[in-house]
Structure formats: structure tokens, C-alpha cells
Amino acid sequence: MTPSSKRRKVGAALLVLTISYYVAELIVASRWPAPHAYSWARNMISDLGVPECLGDMRKYGDGTPSGRYICSPWHALMSTEFVLLGILLLGAAILLSPLLPKTPLGKALPYLAAINCLGMVLVGTFPGSSGAILGGSRIRAVAHPVGAYLELLTGIVIMAIVAYLYRSYHAYTAITLVLLAASLVGVVAGLTTTYPGMEPGAAERLAIDPFVWWRITTGIALLLAPARLATRRAS
Questions:
Q1: What's the CA gap between 51 and 75, in Å, rounded?
Q2: What is the DSSP string of 28-54?
Q3: Helix, strand or coil for residue 68?
Q4: Which pLDDT does position 24 carry in this prediction?
């Protein structure tokens, strides 16, 4: 195995490992105290990492018609996962950067990954700005959303650049564009309070999750690529 092949495999494995995000979500959400259950539609993703048990958000004027309950006993796991998610992408970008096209757009990808990592570190280090409701540190009310927007925007830009750079790989590009479109729809839904049939948590997931799925898909594609090439040569 050549050094470049090893870098590709390890980098691809790091991308696939971002599936840990969904594992952490399921575990932390399952620990929501009874009789309340974490709502995948109403609750925001970051609610899983909020250290304070805020209870029913309607008493704070949250504005969610059907109510939004926040109490995440295993919040530390989710906050740690947010940081890990950023580190995995950064590690993959560093390993795969020599394999990227030597063009301005190709060279920009590792830097975008670094900004994305910074965003996720901010999200995990300064959990859920809802904590500011209790009169906590105001830095959380600023740092958390800044981190979330950095992660979201860089994710969208990374998918757009990769779709353009690797447009000759039609199936992969099509998947990337579908995920990119889904993310953009989620952004619009999140900004439009009257979006039909879309609650805040669902809109946020539609905006953010496609980039996670894109990482997993890209990692799998990179792991399978050598085998496909060998099959083509043999035939």
C-alpha cells in the first residue's frame, strides 16, 4: 500500500466515523427524563448539550406553540461529540489535502474544514445559548450561535466546491448536490417561521444533517474507490 493510499484510507475512515454523531444523539436523547421525551421535530439539536435542566421553554417565552422541553442529563456526551465531529473532519482534511486538486478551490478546502472544526468546538465548548435564560455567562449566548453558523455555512460551501471539482464523477456529484439542496431548503425553512409543516428542530436538522451524511458518503466512496479501479483494470 502506497503512502497516498494509506492517507486516503485513514482520511476516509475518519469521515465515516462521523456517524458517531447519530449514535451520540440517540443515546443522549434516550436519557431525557420521563414523562418528557426529546422531540426530533420541536427540540433543537443543541438542546441535547444544554447543561441546565430548563424544563418547559414556554415559561421563558420560547414561542414554540406545542412546547419545547429541555433537560439533558447526558449533555456532556453530546457536547464532547460536537467537538469530536469537528476534529474528525479536520483530521480527514489534513490527510486528504495532498490528494486534492492544486487549484485555488482545492487549496481552500482544508482551510474551510479548519473553520468548520472551530465552529464545532465553539458549539461543544459553549453549549446551548438557552443557558443564558438563567442569567448565565453571556459569552455562551454569542459563541454558541456563532459556532453553529460557522459549521453550517462552511459545510454548505465545502459541498458546493467538491461538487464542482469532482463533477466528472456523476453519481457522487449527484448525491452531493441532493444533500446540498436539502441543506439549503433547511436553511430557508429555519428562517421562515411560517414554513408549512416544518417545526424548528426539523428545519435545523434538514439544514445541518446533510453535511454529516455527505461526510459519511464521501468516506465510503473513498474506501470503495481503489477496489472499483482495480476491477476496471482487470476487466
A1: 6
A2: HHHTSPTT----TTTS-GGGGG--S--
A3: coil
A4: 97
- Per the CB < 8 A criterion, the answer to whether 49 and 82 are in contact is yes
Question: How many other C-beta atoms lie within 10 A of the C-beta of residue 21?
Answer: 22
Cβ neighbours of residue 61 under 8 Å, at least 6 residues apart? none
Say yes or no to pLDDT of 64 above 70: no
Q: Which residue has the cell 435542566?
A: 53
DSSP tally for the chain: helices H, then strands E: 7, 2
In angstroms, rounded to a whole number, what is the distance separating the alpha carbons of residues 152 and 123? 11
Confirm if 149 and 121 have CB atoms less than 8 A apart. Answer: no
Task: DSSP letter for 207, please.
Answer: H
pLDDT the model gives residue 141: 86
Q: Which whole-number Å values give the CA distances from 139 to 3, 142, 146, 196, in the listed order?
A: 44, 5, 10, 34
Q: Are 58 and 29 in contact (CB under 8 A)?
A: no
Q: Considering only CA atoms, which of 131, 143, 40, 24 is closest in space to residue 80?
A: 24
**Residue 231 in this model has a pLDDT that exceeds 50:** no
Cis peptide bond prior to 110, omega within 30° of 0 = no
For position 131, what pLDDT does the model report? Answer: 63
Closest to 116 in 3D by CA, of 190, 214, 201, 206 = 214
Measured at the CA of 100, the angle between CA 95 and CA 103, to 5 degrees, comes to: 140
* 177-213 confidence digits (pLDDT tens): 999 999 999 998 887 755 556 788 889 999 999 999 9
Mean pLDDT of the chain: 87
What residues contact 171, with CB distance under 8 A and at least 6 apart? none
Query: Can you tell me the mean pLDDT for 51-73?
Result: 77
Task: Report the percentage of the chain scoring pLDDT > 90.
Answer: 63
